[in-house]
Amino acid sequence: MSARPAKREPSKAAAIFEDADATLLDLVDNILTKGVVIDAEIVLGLAGVDLVYVRLSALVSAADKMRRVLSQ
Amino acid sequence: MSPLYLYAVLGAPPTAALGAGMLDEPLRLIDCAGVFAAAGELRAPPALAPDVLRGHDAVVRRLAAATEAVLPARFGAMAADDAELCEQLTRAGDGLREALVRVAGREQMILRVYSTTESLATVDAPEPAVVSPDSGPGARYLAERALAQRAAADVRELTPLRPVFDRFVVAERVERHDTRPLVASVYHLVARGTGGAYSAAVDEAARELSGVRVTVSGPWAAYAFAPALG
User: Distance between CA A30 and CA A16 in Å, rounded?
Assistant: First the structure.
């Protein structure tokens, strides 16, 4: 019996992004990182957000910006 | 007087009743020298949760449906009272008014660009904008625009789609990401009511792309085209 080529599994990161609730990701992106802000003390605690990809999205967004800042 | 939670800055009073905020608090419209803040009396921002984000966005959408120019606020934008809120908005001056003109009668669409290849040969992140710390909001806006234009030129993955969406787009903001598979987010300002046609056109054209996957969402209020204040 010939072995069938193993189906390539998407990476965990790809799966998270591709399966994510895009609307919720956009909500997080729009409302947490954009828009008019008049006070720097924004509550960024994610307690109670029980969706892992939401947490990842917020961190991903912050992390790549932070990396650029730190490299300057 | 209770602290105020800002939902949006409006260019004119809405044509419908303000209604209630996301926690059923009454909303107030505060006239700050010709720009209008839509705010609810809340002691602090609520704990962050998906339903809270949806509630915030629902209030912004309701306001946008009742007036032409809306700059949505970021989650957690608070002021101690009317005077502090107006002071912040007044300090923003022309930058805020220009932004209100820019978003009037428009809505925001979002493209997410995902790489579907294993290659690491992605585009380079643009150089950061150089702005003096003493710069005003106008100079900061122009620097951000210049940065966005450089970044847009670098989103080579979208080049085949440009003839498709350019006819809809009146303003563009691009953010590169270092986090594959997501490589860029592109925010487009389009005329209100054209988001559906934009989405259909981009969806159809994006199916022909190779090595990249593009998702479309919207219409949204113009979150990505609101200025930083202060």
Answer: 19
